[in-house]
Every structure is written in C-alpha cells, then in structure tokens.
Amino acid sequence: MIYYYALIAIVLFALCGWFLSFITKHYSHVDSMWSLFFAITAYVTAIFLQDLSLRACLVLFAVTLWSLRLSIFLTWRNWGKEDHRYDTIRKNNEPYFWLKSLYIVFAFQALLAWIISYPLFAAISSTAALNWLDLAGVLLFVLGLYWEVVADLQLTRFRASAGHQTQVLNTGLWRYSRHPNYFGECLIWWGFALLAASSASYWVWVSPLLMTFLLLKVSGVSLMEQTIHSRRPGYAEYVKNTNAFIPGIPKRAEK
Questions:
Q1: Where are the transmembrane segments (predicted)?
Q2: Number of other residues whose CB lies within 10 A of the CB of residue 196
Q3: Which position among 32, 214, 234, 247 has the lowest Cβ density within 10 Å, counted as fewest Cβ atoms?
Q4: pLDDT tens-place string over residues 35-61
C-alpha cells in the first residue's frame, strides 16, 4: 500500500510540473524533476515506516545525494533555455500540445519513475540483516555516482571553452566511452537493486534492466546520437574508435 501512496505523491508532483509548463511554455524542467520522483518514493516509504533500518538510512542518504545533485545540475544546465528534444516533441504533437503534454511528458515520466523506483521501496522496507550484497550495492553506487559526476564536469568544462561548439570531447572518461555519464547512471541503478536484493523480490531486477534499456535504446545513447553527427562533424570518427557505453580501450590505442 505504501508503494501506491508514493505513486499518488509522484503524480501530484508531476501535476505541479505540468502547471508550471502551462505558465512558462517550457518543458525542460521535467528533466530536473526526474530524479526527484525517486526521492519522493524513498521518503514516502520512510515516512510510513515506524522504524528505519541501517539499510533504509543508507538508501535514503544515497537517493538524496544522487537526486539533488542531478536535479541541481540539470536545472543549472537548462536554465533560460529549452532542450531541443522538447521542441521536437512539441512540433510533432501540435495542436493543443499544452494539454497533450500532461500525459505525453509529465504523466508518462511519473509512471515510469514510479515503476523504476521499486528497489528503493523494497530496500527501505526490508528488515533483513545487512549482508555482502549491500556492500556490493554501496560500492557500485559510489562508483556510478563518481563516474557520472566526473563525466558531467568534464563535458561542462569542454562545452564552456571557446571553439568547442562543434568539436568532440574525446579525453578523460570520454576517451573510453561515448556516454560515460549514462554508464555511471546505469551503475547507480544496479547498486540500488543490490541494496534491495534482501527483499527476495524478483521485481527489484526489473528496475535496472529497464533503466539500462532506456539509457541504451530510448532516451540516452540512441536519442543523443540521432542528431549529434550534424552538430559535431568529427563524431563519426569518434564512433569508430570509442565504445558507446561500457568503457574500453580506444581502438587506435590497441594498434
């Protein structure tokens, strides 16, 4: 039942986002809301439990750290402008996109986030003793967060430098993977699933599998690389030499 209370809270938060888009005529703030959907599930679960285990405290700390960092970063990055993805979605769904966005953008993401957030609910609710899977989950989360933060910092610095608007970042973590930030995000969700493994529910594995699929085939790698070739002419050569997702030695360096 608590898990369904989280859905209600997430939907109400999504409605607030839709109302804001109705006023501002922009939609990029849903990116900032995405990670906060998961924090809502975690905190709604914690509020309805009488006692919190050490695992629950660990998960709450991890979700807070990850969700606030990502939300603040995306808010700063998108401030005063709209991501081109939403302009494309708007053009494909006129007329009355202001109304259609309620379910195309906000309700859809709210429902998806609720499904993916199940390991957070399961980990916080679990009363099982901590074990080696929790340690593995924490280590994977820390590695994923480090990978994501460093990749975001390197890309931000690169984009801020003059003359890099049409260039390709192929140094740092971006030398070993074309999307190290998405790889870090993927590790984070496998870490949450390991922290929830003690709940003995097979559903906790649906979340990282779904997130990995989305990052690879829907909203991450696939979507990003649909248009980047026209904006950065050297990207085709970068693709030839660099793994798309899992870090690996650049092909040129292997010769």
A1: 7-27, 33-49, 56-76, 96-116, 128-147, 187-216
A2: 29
A3: 234
A4: 999 999 999 999 999 789 999 999 999
